[in-house]
Amino acid sequence: xxxxxxxxxxxxxxxxxxxxxxxxxxxxxxxxxxxxxxxxxxxxxxxxxxxxxxxxxxxxxxxxxxxxxxxxxxxxxxxxxxxxxxxxxxxxxxxxxxxxxxxxxxxxxxxxxxxxxxxxxxxxxxxxxxxxxxxxxxxxxxxxxxxxxxxxxxxxxxxxxxxxxxxxxxxxxxxxxxxxxxxxxxxxxxxxxxxxxxxxxxxxxxxxxxxxxxxxxxxxxxxxxxxxxxxxxxxxxxxxxxxxxxxxxxxxxxxxxxxxxxxxxxxxxxxxxxxxxxxxxxxxxxxxxxxxxxxxxxxxxxxxxxxxxxxxxxxxxxxxxxxxxxxxxxxxxxxxx
Length: 337
Prior knowledge:
By secondary structure, this protein is an alpha/beta fold. The protein folds into two domains: 2-139 and 304-334, Medium-chain alcohol dehydrogenases, catalytic domain (Quinone Oxidoreductase, Chain A, domain 1, Alpha-Beta Complex), CATH 3.90.180; 146-276, NAD(P)-binding Rossmann-like Domain (Rossmann fold). Helix content is 30%, strand content 25%. It is built from eleven helices and 18 strands. The strands form four sheets. Strands 3, 5, 6, 9, 10, 17 and 18 form a seven-stranded mixed β-sheet that branches. Strand 17, helix 11 and strand 18 (330-334) form a beta-alpha-beta unit. Helix 4 (141-157) packs across helix 5 and helix 4 (141-157) packs across helix 9. The chain is globular, with a radius of gyration of 20 Å.
């Protein structure tokens, strides 16, 4: 079976590769809607270290995708069924190690071809039904699954006093996490700390909202999730260390390309638990879809989705990445090649 794969070969340069791919025992899916992630954008713009770019390219981008099943010889899925695609290649390890952290794990669109292909062939356990979710919203299932994974780890590690949970950041990840926590931790008050007035306004369902430069001195919370990343990581972590209650848990979710200083004296004095959290696995996708099937959550998630025009060729791919640079949250587009 010949497949067309749209590979990034150099910054902002995409070429089509034709490849004969295996179909036996695989679920064949035609991608329908995709979403652009910051990681995809960094590769496309060449904003990773040159050595990393040389190692990763060429590869097809995009790891957030939903599609329609064309054929499933295993009988797990029906033709035409809407499914979310899991980009994580599970590693091997003890049962207590999550699949996304296990030795030998991989990730599509990070050294392996992502979902910018004419069709995708995956093992059945890398596909999850998302029937009942609007296709444009289902495109960000992977993104939502990152937040369900973070909650799963938090739920296992943090102490039981969870009256007040803070989210540091006001971008797409912070907003999606807030939506997830509103379902999985409905009794907890959410405190959101961010920088942008327009973005903070979307967190209307949070109990409290603050600007990062005017956080009250007496503000306290039991635990926190850091969703700032980048240059904002240090400030976000400092904020949590200053305001979290003793033995609080800090979940690190924001990605930084550079070392971030941490005031360890106060971390030690408060007996804090600091947890790194990245990506997700099948169980997280299943939980994400369950959450996304509720009408309220779908409506909330639509608030951060900008639906761009359909992509039908390489020129359109370049347009989408250019559009995404001007979009405050998530860019979703129909894959029509």
